[in-house]
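Hi there,

I know you've been waiting on this one. I reran it after we fixed the sequence typo, so this is the corrected version. Both the input and the resulting structure follow.
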Amino acid sequence: MRIYELGEGTPEVAVVGAIHGDEPCGPVAIERLVAESPAVRRPVKLVVANEEALDAGVRYLDEDLNRTFPGDPDADSHERRLAAHLSRELRGCTTLSLHSTQSFAEPFALVDRVDAVTHAVCPHLPIDVVVETDRFTDGRLIEHAHTVEVECGLQGSDEAAENAYDLVRAFLDATDVLDADDERLSTASRATTHEADTVTVYRLLDPIPKIPEGDHEVFATNFEPVEVGDSFAATDGTPLVADRHFYPVLLSAYGYEDIFGYVAEHVGTLS
């Protein structure tokens, strides 16, 4: 695990990338920000978590890090030990966790539950959507208090890395870390500040099962309504037909081994 700190004192704000080693957008954004060496009003901790998996270009070495929190410092598993170390490093910090996905090109946020941190931070991020994961958080960093997880874009894409940088800058602005008067910041960097806007909130309800073997297709678009009777996915040509109105989230033919994604409901907005 690689840790950078900007500013003096004990950080109460943190950014984490490389929870998954095959999602390089977070480390790219963190290294870019560190290279800029921006002036800060309050200290911040920047963490590249699973360096070993990142170097190997794989999601994890022993098990999915984002299913092992709070971890165990004495475990045989590399990721379970790392989860315990990372949990200690993030204790007391409002945290942004950077990810990427195979299901949706635009950035969006996920939280355990909409809370005061969600209200304070998410309307200032360059996103249009927040997803309440609710009961689908076992073993994930998102269970850590005051954590916002963001999907920055399509996995491995240049756009995801650029989005990740913009999200980090906006998060650090929203948490009053960055000094807006720093003359060393480029015009492009200043342009990443995001004014508060309306953000739509969805809540996950159920996973959509998928047979691991087979030729999978999806026909619906994430965050667009699916109506009763609509064919929204298929396996080996056999369609899945909606038996209720819902909004698909993280819907993809390839993203998860045993589910297509999630059924979600619209619950409101933040502004």
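Quick highlight: Helices lie at 25-36, 51-56, 78-90, 116-121, 158-174, 187-190.

Best,
R. S.
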